[in-house]
Design a protein that fits this description.
Layout (H helix, E strand, L loop, with lengths): L2 H18 L5 E5 L1 H9 L4 H9 L3 E5 L1 H9 L5 H7 L3 E2 L10 H9 L7 E4 L3 H7 L7 E5 L2 E4 L4 H15 L3 H8 L1 E3 L5 E3 L1 H27 L3 H26 L5 H15 L1
Main location: nucleus
Keywords: Nucleus, Ribosome biogenesis, rRNA processing
Family: Belongs to the UTP23/FCF1 family. UTP23 subfamily.
Length: 266
């Protein structure tokens, strides 16, 4: 596959991922003619489809498609056996219906499950091209081709991108409340200003409640101050106790000591 074509395919799939939220591995719905053509061209779909989509993918087939291949008999026996290797995508039909109807009901009008459709039917590809966000694959001779995004997909992409840059409905409603005075000053409408004031007041009350809760629990600085005061108080009490313990000797005690000394000298 050429380098330029690979870059184009990668750009297409990136667009589908960013705009329509496609996820990897990509889910690829294949129809009966696509399987038969791949078999005729000796193309391994499990190898070639991930190369074209530039990432992992899983091929899926509906019971209605398998019933169609089985009804074709021996001519499609190889394609029927090949379809058994793919993951089964259940449909709502108890009995097999036309393949185009089955696939159309799955894709619906918005491709809610983000399927890539691989089909050899130009009519079916044209129909799905009108649905935004449906990547389309087909086989041209021995080449697997990913169609460029359809006009519907590109228009949807532009719509989403423009929505990101334009003001939202809420922002436009806010702008409607703005008034310009005669002096050229921009002021809010009275109702809008009142709502804004009430909002600010509620925020202020919440802050005061939080502040009151914090004041109930003394902080580190307050705790340290109380601890320091307590230590100083204990130091003062210790000093007073020491002062109390220092007692002066009484006169009688000193006289007794003097008498005892005189006796010893005699």
């Amino acid at each position: 596959m050429r380098l330029k074509r690979t870059k184009d395919y990668k750009r297409y799939m990136n667009m589908y991922c960013q705009t329509f939220h496609f996820r990897k591995p990509y889910q690829v719905l294949v129809d009966a003619d696509f399987i038969q053509t791949a078999l005729d061209q000796r193309m391994d779909l499990r190898t070639n489809i991930p190369k074209v989509l530039c990432d992992a993918s899983k091929q899926m087939v509906t019971p209605c498609t398998m019933a169609l291949l089985k009804s074709r008999g021996e001519d499609a026996s190889g394609a029927f056996l090949a379809s058994k290797r793919f993951e089964k995508r259940r449909c709502k039909h108890q009995e097999a219906v036309d393949e185009d109807i089955c696939l159309s009901q799955i894709i619906s009008t918005s491709n809610p499950h983000n399927y890539v459709v691989a089909s050899q039917s130009k009519k079916l590809r044209s129909k799905f091209g009108q649905v935004p966000g449906v990547p389309l694959l087909y086989i041209n001779r021995s080449n697997l081709i990913l169609e460029p995004p359809s006009e519907a997909s590109m228009n949807k992409c532009k719509e989403i991108e423009s929505g990101k840059t334009h003001a939202s409905t809420k922002e436009l409603a806010t702008l409607k409340t703005v008034k310009v005075t005669g002096q050229g000053k921009v002021t809010l409408d009275v109702k809008a200003a009142k709502k804004l004031e009430e909002k600010q007041e509620s925020k202020k009350q919440k802050r005061e409640v939080q502040k009151a809760k914090l004041l109930k629990k003394p902080g580190a600085a307050t705790a340290a101050t109380e601890k320091k005061k307590k230590a100083e108080g204990e130091g003062a009490d210790g000093a007073s106790e020491k002062k109390k313990r220092k007692r002066r000797k009484s006169k009688s005690a000193s006289a007794n000591q003097g008498t005892a000394a005189g006796d010893e000298s005699s």
